[in-house]
Amino acid sequence: MRLPKAVRDLTENFEKLPGIGPKTAQRLTFYLLHVPQNQLESFAASLGKLKSGTLLCSVCKNVDEKDPCSICSDPSRDSGRIMVVEQPLDLLALERSGKYKGVYHVLHGAINPLENIGPDEIFIKALIGRISGNQLSRSAKIFELILATNPTMEGEATAMYIKKQIIEIGNGTSHIKITRLGVGVPTGADLEYVDDVTLKYAIEGRREF
């Protein structure tokens, strides 16, 4: 039996999503076939607005509705302390912990040579420029950089690369305290799946890096 082209096209598009295999893609497609037309149109409209209704913060690269984002523009946040995370979902997880009151920088990925992702493919240059520009300005200086990349091989490689770049800014000696999240986050875990209490202790127990 040959499926209708509309079904095949939607199934193929679902398969392009991370974690979605052919069978799951088919189930999602046939589920949507039974959804009332008004709900289906609402779903399609939401997809259409996903790009047009969001933007990247010019400061930290977080996803928001305004620029600068709600965190960067919040005067109560400690702008001298930057937490570097891989994805916006990591930022959301850390915010849920309620422990961190500084600002962020979202890389949108990690260095991964096997996937052809190098430093230029993620927002490392924007981070370095943000730090070097701040240190030359008269504004409140950045005094701590918390490397909260995931405790994976890719996350560690990214953290080491950033540390090296920061030290080079300081002519061989880092003028900024560089820390890594402390105990509590298991090796190989993604921050977005770690519970709030574990994240709270990881932030409190961060160490020199």
UniProtKB/TrEMBL annotation:
Domain of life: Bacteria
MF terms (GO), sorted A to Z: DNA binding; zinc ion binding
GO biological process entries: DNA recombination; DNA repair
Alphabetical UniProt keywords: DNA damage, DNA recombination, DNA repair, Metal-binding, Zinc, Zinc-finger
UniProt cross-references to Pfam families, sorted A to Z: RecR_C, RecR_HhH, RecR_ZnF, Toprim_4
C4-type zinc finger segments: 57-72
SMART domains assigned to the protein according to its UniProt record, in alphabetical order: TOPRIM (SM00493)
Domain Toprim positions: 80-186
Role description: May play a role in DNA repair. It seems to be involved in an RecBC-independent recombinational process of DNA repair. It may act with RecF and RecO.
PANTHER family: RECOMBINATION PROTEIN RECR (PTHR30446)
NCBIfam families: recR
Family the UniProt entry places it in: Belongs to the RecR family.
Protein name (Swiss-Prot/TrEMBL): Recombination protein RecR
Lineage: Bacteria, Candidatus Blackburniibacteriota
